[in-house]
Amino acid sequence: MKIFISVDIEGVTGVTSWNETELGHHEYAWAREQMTKETIAACQGALEAGAKEIIIKDAHDYARNLDISKLPKEASVIRGWTSSPESMMAGIDASFDAAIFIGYHSAAGENGNPLAHTMDSKKCTWLKINDEIASEFTINTMIAAYHGVPVVFLSGDEMLCENSKKLVPNIETVAVKSGVGGATFNIHPERACELIRKGVKKALQNIDQCKIEAPKNPKLEIRFSQHEDAHKAKHYPGAKLVDAHTVEYQAKDVLDMITARMFIL
Ligand SMILES: [Zn+2]
Question: Which of 3.10.450.50, 3.30.870.10, 1.10.3720.10, 3.40.50.10780 is the CATH number of 2-119+135-213?
Answer without folding.
Answer: 3.40.50.10780
